[in-house]
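Revision sheet: structure tokens.
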Amino acid sequence: MESNKSTGLVGFGTAGGPGAGNPAAKAMRALSGKAGEAAVTHVARGVGDAIGQLGGQLVESQRVRHETRRLVIEHEASARREADAAERREREKQNDFVRARLTADHEARLAARSSDQEHHQRMAEAELAARFSHQKHHRRVAEMGLRAEYDILAHTERARRKAERKTSPFQVDSRAVRDHALGATRSFSRPLLLVAPFHSRAAGESGSATDPEELLLSFLHTWDAQPWCEDMGRLVGVFRRPLSMFDLDVSVIRQALDDVPTVLVSGEIDRAGHLWINVIGWNLLPEAEDRPPAAEGQAADAYRIVLPAVADDREGGARDPAGEQAFRDEVAASALLVAEVYAEWFHSARGRPPSLHRRLPAPAGAWRGAIAAGSAAMVGIAVERGLLHPVFGLLVQARTYLEGGHTESALVLARRAARELRTGSRPGPQPFLEWTRRTAALLRELGEPEEAASLLANAEDIARDLILGRHDLGPRDD
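Predicted:
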């Protein structure tokens, strides 16, 4: 085995071999003798050991190289991280700089904008202040103008009222009179009754039969005692003096009450002691639907009745207070009866059948016919103005004439009502039947039973057909 090793070593160091010129090989050849055989063996072992250790050294070297590379990589990574951090810090510094610059620019722009806004606001405030001052000036001028105009109007109104107080018969302002009239007439649903103080030209003693104050009291008390006193609303205390300037005073009164249904009673006592009484009424009839409104300043239709002059014809001598009061009461009753006729016209024209002629006291019975005729005529006017249905108006007129003793006029109107029911404009079924029966009753009372029977013959059938719609509501041919 050793020879093999020696042979191997000799071969390793032979001339021309791989170890030619190698110092170790030369040394080994010098010791290739017997004497150096042990040394060679020892060297070989050292070389083998060195060769054996060479793998470990290579592994260690490789490990060192890897560790070195790892350290280099870590160093490079650290360097890169530091460079990146430095770069980030640089970028952050640049960003901070840019932000600071942008912030400064933004703040500068904001400051400039705020300054501009403040400038514009100050300009706007100055403009508003100037405009407000201008408006305030104009307002002061306007207020001064309005105050001056108000002062002029107030002065004019005071002058008007002062002049009116001098000439007006009213105790209060004319506007206040109208307001009081509104309440007295229940919102104009009945006429207003005014009794003016009596104007005396006589030099009679106080308390005589024609004493103005006593006459006024008699008129007021007599009206309160009448059964028809609710037909008008009485207003006392309106006048501060008699109507001595009659036409002018009546004109002033009518202007103040131009839309109020009014009945005015006034009187004058002449120097001979005769009493003259005027009864004037206006706005008693409602306006027709097709009648044009009155022009401004145009007075409404008025009706005036002047009663015949009366005087106390009793023999002179001692005072007779009871007789004087009876005279005053009789004059008041007569004059107020005429006023009630006006009230009857007012209510009759609005659909209430006349009733005054049936309520007359016994002393005034002779007036029944005239009052009934006047009321019937008023109903006729209401029919002409379209305020009442023609058939109903004819029935009311005929009944009023009959109760007033005017039978011929009542018969004429009853026949007209019958003819209107046959050929004229028919009302609804119920009014048609009722008015037909009332017309027939009138004809029977007037001594015409055959005409009444003829009218009633087909009345119920026609009313039934009207209900069922088999008859139109217009005229029909017999």
